[in-house]
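Hello forum,

I keep getting stuck at the same step: I have a sequence, I want structure tokens, and every attempt I make locally crashes halfway through. Rather than fight my setup again tonight, could one of you with a working pipeline run this one for me? It's a single chain of 205 residues.
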Amino acid sequence: MARTRIGATFVTLLAALGWTLAAGGLGLAVNALRGVGRGGLPWVAPFPYEHDCPEKLALDTPTIAAPRAWKLLGSKRVRGPEGSRDVALVDARPEEAFSEAHLRGARSYPYSFVTPFSKADAAKLKGFAHVFVYCDSPGDRLAGVQAELMRRAGLSRVKVVKGGFAALCKVASAAAIIGDKKTPATQPTTSPATTKPAAGKGGQP
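Reply #2:
Ran it on my machine without issues. Output:
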């Protein structure tokens, strides 16, 4: 009796294995018929598993990219992106934080999972030599995610400002800051689904 049950279980397992192999083979056959170039999935990934994350820009480093950006920030006559095509400052913080305080000339593109940065948004920044993204979240998390989305949308030379808005305020002149930088920043959003998109993307000054 026991041997009969063991035999039946073994047969069931073999049958399940057979169905699994058959289903896998059918899937591979369908994929081969579709063709890799016509929608089929390649056996080997066509891209490296590792990719370069957006570089972080440390403001306290003597040699930094596009130093004219910080010269503009420290100048008494601050020019926004409309006055200079060197650098675009992108504020990835929630809209409420941008309204409280931001860098003059910065454009508000808050990170949003619902309405991510698009190619249409990227087209507005194509003319800039450099794009610097900042936020106020721990580890510059939101700025990093937004910068990656911006690169995927077709922008190059995108960098994350290390230390975010607070670091920028330290090197910028008082005239370069709109609002009260001492005002407590809006609680950094860590859940992409709850991040509110801005009413008007790309808003400035």
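The longest strand covers residues 87-91. If your local run keeps crashing, start a new thread with the error log.
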